[in-house]
C-alpha cells in the first residue's frame, strides 16, 4: 500500500518574469477527494500541468504512486480532464474514445466494450457513430468525462471539472466523483467555486499567487474558523448596521449575500457586542446566529484582494 | 511505440475519411484521362483536316507550283489557290471568321527571293499545325527556287526528303529507348509531383497540428505521449496518406495509358491512322524510381517537420496560411528552376541545387532524370539532406513542444529562438 498517491515537492514555475507557482508542496493520500482551490491566476492550472508532465517545473519535483516515473509514463493509471476541454470535432464519438484510450495505453480490443458501456451509461449510444461536432455542448462534456475515466485510472485529475456544466451535468459529474472515491480511487480537482469543494472534498488546499495558504482536511479547516462567523439577516430597516460592520474593532470581514450577510468577527471581539451595537443602531434583525463558516467565507477572508478581483467568477 | 502507431493510424484513417481525400484521389486519374482525350481529339494524332487558302501574289506561276507541292506533301491540309485581288484578304478573313476556312497563306515573289511568307488563321496556336506547315513550306520554297535555276524538276522531286530525327537518351553507357520528349515529360512530371506532394501533405500535417492546438485536445495527448512522438506520428500518418494517393495516381495513369485504343474506340475517334498511342508513358528506369522515392521521403520529412512547427506557432488557420507562405516559396525555387537544370544538368547552378537541402528534394531527382549525378555528388547531396532532416526535425520538435501549449499572439522570432535554446 502506498503512503501517498501524489507528492508535489517545493515546485516552482516562472513565466517570463512572474512566478506562477512558488515552492508549492502538496501531498495527496490514497482514496481521498482533494480540492485545489484558488482564485483566477492562483497557479492551479500550472500546478496541474506540472503534475501531468505537460510542463516541467523550474524547481522541485512531482512524485506519483511512490515511483520515479513521470505522469506520462504512468498515463495508464491517471485520468485527466484539462481546464480547456476539446475533442476532435470531425471524428466520430466512438473513435475519439478509442483513440484517447490508446493514448492512455489501452488496446482497442479492451477499450471498445468499455467505451460502448460508457456511452450507454451516459445515454449517448445512438450518437456513437456521429461526428463530435454534431453533439451538443453538454453531450461533448459527457464524452470528455468518459475519455478521462475509460481506462479506469487510480488517480483522476480534473481541472475545473464543473466550469461550464449545466446543473444536470454538474450532478452527473458530482456523482461520478463520489462513485470513484467509493471504489477507492483518488481524485484531485481544482475549482474556484467553493460550494462544490465544500460538498465534495475530504481535503483542501487553497493557493493564491502561486503560494499555499491552507492545506488541511476540510473538517479541520472549518473547525479552526468556527465561532468567529455570524449570520445576520434584517427584517426591514438596517438602521446603522453599515457603521457597525465598518467598525474594525468588531468586524474583520463581511460577505453581503443580499438576503443575509456573513460577518467575520475581529480578533478578540465578542459576538454579543456586535448584537448590542446592531440593536442599538436601530436595525431590525430577523436572524442572528453563530455559525460554522462557509468555505466561501473562509476563502474570501484568506485571499481577499485576489478574490475581489475574481468576484464575478466566484459568485457565478 | 504503440502510442505512436495509434497516432499514425488516427491521422491516416481520419484523413482518408474526408471527402477531400477522395476528390483528390479521383482528380488525378481524371486529369490524366482528360490529357489523353485532349491528345486524341486534337493535334497531330487525330488527323484533323485543315483547309488553307493560298493567296497567290507571285508572277510567273511560282505560286501555283508551290500549291501543287504543298498539296502533294501535306495530306492533312487541303490547299486552295486564290489569285491575288485587292479584296482577297478581307473576304478570306470573313471566311475564316465564319469557320469555313482555317487560315490563309500570303505568298508573293519575295517568298522565293528572301523567304518571307505570312499565315493568318484561327489555328496559329496549334504548334503541330504550324510546325508542319512551316517545315513543308521551307522545303517547297527550296524546290521551287532550284527549279527556277534550271534544275530538272524530276531531280528536285527526287531530292525532296523529309528527315525525321529520333532522339535517344544515353544513360551511363547504354542507349535507352527513351526519347528526348519522353525524358522531358518524365522530369517535368517528377518536379510537379514532388513539389505538389511535399506541399500538400506537409500542409496536412500543419492543419492537423493546428486542429489539436485550437481544440486544446493537445493537453490530454501531451500528458500521455511525448510531443516529439506525437509529431512523428502525425508526420508519418499524413505521409502514408500521401503515398497511398500517389500510388493510386500512378497506377491509374498506367492503366489508362494502356487503354488508350479502347478509349479512342469508345469515343468513336479514328485513331488507327496515327503512329503509336496518343500519349506515350516514359519508361522509368529503376534507378530513377529509387532516387525519386528517396528524395521524396527525405524532402517530405524535412518540410513536414517545418510545417508542424508552423502549425504549432500559429493560433488560427489564417495565421498558419500566412506563416506557411515562405516555406512554400522556399520549395518553389527548385520547381521554377527545372528548365534551367534540364538544359544543363551539370552546370554550377544545377550542382548548387543538388546540395542545398531545401531544394535538393525537387532538384536532384530532376537533374538525375536528365543526366545521372556522379556517385560522389549524389552521396554528398543525400548526406547533407539527411543531416538537415535530423537537425530541422530537432529544431521543429522544440518549437512544436512549446508552441502547441501556447495561446494568444504568435511568438516573434526571438521568442522562437529562445524556445529552441531552452532545453
What separation lies between the terminal Cα atoms of chain B? 23 Å
Overall outline of chain B: elongated
The domain count of chain A comes to 2
- CATH homologous group name of the largest domain in chain A: P-loop containing nucleotide triphosphate hydrolases
Oligomer: heterodimer
The level of helicity of chain B is: 55-70%
Overall average pLDDT of chain B = 83
Q: Report the radius of gyration of chain B as a whole number of Å.
A: 29 Å
Strand tally of chain B, please?
6
Low-confidence stretches of chain A: 306-316
CATH topology tier name of the largest domain in chain A: Rossmann fold
Describe what is shown at a glance:
Chain A is α/β, with parallel strands linked by helices and 316 residues long. Chain A has helices at residues 44-51, 93-103, 108-121, 137-149, 167-182, 194-200, 218-225, 241-245, 271-280, 295-309, 311-315, and strands at 6-15, 18-28, 33-37, 59-64, 78-81, 155-159, 186-191, 203-208, 211-217, 229-234, 251-256, 261-265, 285-291.
Structural summary, described in words:
The complex is a heterodimer of chains A (316) and B (423). Chain A is built from 11 helices and 13 strands. Chain A is α/β, with parallel strands linked by helices and 316 residues long. Chain A has 2 domains: 6-217, Rossmann fold (3-Layer(aba) Sandwich), CATH 3.40.50.300; 223-315, Alpha-Beta Plaits. In chain A, the strands form 3 sheets. Chain A has a 6-stranded mixed sheet, with helices on both faces. A 4-stranded antiparallel sheet of chain A has the order 11-12-10-13, with helices on both faces. Chain A has a 3-stranded antiparallel sheet with strand order 2-1-4, covered by helices on one side. Chain A is elongated. The model of chain A is unreliable at 306-316 (pLDDT under 50). Chain B is α/β, with parallel strands linked by helices and 423 residues long. In chain B, 68% of the residues lie in helices and 6% in strands. Chain B is built from 18 helices and 6 strands. The chains are: A alpha/beta (316), B alpha/beta (423). At the A-B interface, helix 2 of A face helix 1, helix 8 and helix 9 of B.
